[in-house]
Amino acid sequence: MNMEREPFLSAKNLKLLKEPIDCQNPITVQVLGICSALAVTVKMKPAIVMALSVTIVVAFSNLVIALIRNYIPPRIRIIVQLVVIAALVILVDQILRAYSYEVSKQLSVFVGLIITNCILMGRLEAFAMANKPWPSFIDGLGNGAGYGLILIVVSIFRELLGSGTIYGYPVFEKLGIYETGYVNNGLIILPPMALILVGLIIWFQRSRNRKLIEGK
Amino acid sequence: MENLFNIFIKSIFIENMVFAYFLGMCSYLAVSKTVKTSSGLGIAVIFVMVITVPVDYLLETYILKAGAMAWISPALADVDLSFLSFIMYIAVIASMTQLVEMIVEKFAPALYLSLGIFLPLIAVNCAILGASLFMQQREYSSVAEASVFGLGSGIGWYLAIVAIAAIKEKLQYSNIPKPLRGLGISFIVTGLMAIAFMSFMGIQL
């Protein structure tokens, strides 16, 4: 073990936390974990719960794998990783069922599908297998936050335009927009619009940050 | 028989894994560069699904469900192992994937090389675990129904990935705004395809 310890939130660790939120975002740049991202974004509440669950599972599975990384035989590492992830997801699932059954019902199979969320395997393979526990934990938090950010942005648009509310609060009704003849847009609640919204977010992000443009 | 046919058509078109539930999007977006590779991956996914869904169905009915173990001895009648289902499903899927990997490596080495990392990643393809979880949630009543559902979902996924690969091959020659190239336009095209697939919803089965 090296004796000099770096401070818990050194510049390097802070970078690990910030990068995945913007220029290394798991969804829009690394293309990981899209599956669940789109299906739970009709309303904000399930989106937030999903974002939190994924963050917790990524951070802790990164931590656990980083702790035992030197003892895992490389040939069976995928199974070991899956078992760690599955155990954490079962915990999250049981907690959700116990404390907020309604949301757990809305998320349906997507809680179980956190296991196969590519963010988890991707981060475990790319980061936790080669780094110390604390930076891995931070990396997990950062990626969870980047994932959560996209989820929440998409769900704000879908909930506002689709049902006229934000987190259940009837914004459009209070502002009196319905009296001007506005009708809730039913199309945006349908699954395909989530894909198009994410496409637009990617467009927006890449036109701001030209480094991310795919070369051709 | 009619029921099986309904499940088959429904799982291909109406409840398509990619367009209705966004499952398996990661490899769907990443591997769909050419029609040839994506068709290879699609076939591998069909194969894995056809086997894992019925196997998971048997596991669920005879071991995991509440009271499912009563056939071993009456003493086990009130054992409920359903909280273990995630781990059991993923174990079945991971081992099946290993098998497919070995088969492809032996019989189609070129395909093996072009699929690269995405072959082992079938194990974490959400579409496959998703199919098992939907099977559990919808409570299909026989192995035949579960197998047909697995086959249909696999074929649906195959159709989706081959279609997007064909569109992407054409897109290479079109003039798209720079920031939208690559990932952005793939998302939007997938969205439009999903809208097209929604027209199947009107079919009464």
Descriptive overview:
The complex is a heterodimer of chains A (216) and B (205). With 216 residues, chain A is mainly α. Chain A has ten helices and no strands. The termini of chain A are far apart. Chain B has 205 residues and is mainly alpha-helical. Chain B has one domain (2-202). Helices cover 70% and strands 0% of the residues of chain B. Chain B has nine helices and no strands. Chain B has helices at 2-14, 17-21, 25-31, 35-64, 85-107, 109-115, 126-138, 143-171, 183-198. The model of chain B has no long low-confidence stretch (mean pLDDT 84). Classes of the chains: A mainly alpha (216), B mainly alpha (205). At the A-B interface, α2, α4 and α10 of A face α2, α3, α5, α7 and α9 of B.
The helix-strand sequence of chain A is: HHHHHHHHHH
Largest sheet of chain B: none
Task: Give the CA-CA distance, first to last residue of chain A.
Answer: 46 Å
Question: Any idea what the radius of gyration of chain B is?
Answer: 19 Å
Q: Name the helicity range of chain B.
A: 55-70%
Report helical residue fraction of chain A.
55-70%
